Amino acid sequence: MHPTDISRLKFDIKENQSGLFYCGGELVLVVIRNACKRDQLVQFIDDSVSEVIASRTSIRKEDVGHMSQMGLSAGSRSGGTLDWVKNVSSRKSEVGKHNAIDYRASSSFAALWQLSQALLPDEIIIDFASFLEQIGSDARMDGHGSMNLGTDGRGEFSIDIGSTSYTFHGAELAPPAGVMAANYCRHVHNEKQPHKWSISFTTNHTWDKDFPSVDAGGHFYISEYGIRVRAAANTLIAWQPKDWHGTSLPLMNPVDSSKEYHQRGLAFVTSSRLLRAIKLWREGKKREAEDELLVGEGHSEHELDSFVSQLRRSERLAGKVAKE
């Protein structure tokens, strides 16, 4: 654990400050406070994050806090195959409940994607659009197949505002993978992802009010450029994961639960392995289609291979080939 040397900060972005940050003419960070004007929508997304955290395993057990993956996964490194992430940690038999959680989580990511497209600079959205074009429009976060995803990347998702549920039809669904987190922090690091930018949205930030917000921790650092983004709810951040970045430890009160620290949010971050997993999945689908075509014509691939093998052993064919 290392204390922050405040004197080395070049920018300290306060809880009510937004901005675009450049280095050498290149955009490196975007911070938008009060990004969503509907508090009830922020609450819906925050509730979705909470139920995912309560029911799914953490992918970073070595770090403080909890981070759960959502959407498509490349699977384990030893035997990975493309599939919806398998991370249910409690009452796995309650299939209907977990399907509903998948749907609400995917709807939350769809809402974040709509918000990002409305607010973030074009170059960030173009970067994600290029990634989505690479993997194909039918690879989206679709609530584990429950959102009527079409080949154009569009489907339907629902948002609950108060007691009313709104369903959006023909809406663009979110990129295929992301994470939801609570009280999560990680040392300074960088990452390789199949897109240049990552996007996060903080849905909740509460702390012991005996201390000022700046002392409560959970702040986001872009160490590459000496930037601290102070933690605050309803904050949209876009950064480049290749740059050194990290999150500071939160101020926790283990005795008084009324003064507990809570910070939750979600982010578009993608494993570098997902791109290859999708490619292999598509190749598998192509082979399946070819096999179905052969079976439809009355011949299996095995039967055709066997027939060709017999021809190769035929004396008549061998003699014909010799004469030619």
Describe the structure.
With about 325 residues, the chain is α+β, with helices and mostly antiparallel strands. The protein has two domains: about 5-270, 4-Layer Sandwich (Double-stranded beta-helix); about 280-324, no CATH class. The protein is about 30% helix and about 25% strand. It has six helices and 14 strands. It has helices at about 40-55, 95-120, 120-135, 275-295, 300-315, 315-324; strands at about 10-15, 20-25, 25-35, 65-75, 85, 155-160, 165-170, 175-185, 200-205, 220, 225-230, 235-240, 245, 260-270. The strands form three sheets. It has an eight-stranded antiparallel beta sheet, with helices on one face. A hairpin with a 2-residue loop joins strand 6 (about 155-160) and strand 7 (about 165-170). Helix 1 (about 40-55) crosses helix 2 (about 95-120). It is globular. Mean pLDDT is about 90; it is low at about 315-324.
Mean pLDDT: 88
Strand content: 25-35%
User: So what's the CATH class of the largest domain?
Assistant: Alpha Beta
Please count the helical segments: 6
Uncertain spans, ≥5 residues at pLDDT below 50?
A: 316-324
Over all CA atoms, what is the radius of gyration? 25 Å
Order of helices and strands: EEEHEEHHEEEEEEEEEHHH
Strand order of the largest sheet: 2-3-12-9-14-8-4-5
As for the CATH topology of the largest domain, it is: Double-stranded beta-helix
Question: Structural class per helix/strand content?
Answer: alpha+beta
- Ends distance: 79 Å
> What is the correct CATH architecture of the largest domain?
4-Layer Sandwich
Total beta strands: 14
Inertia-based shape: globular
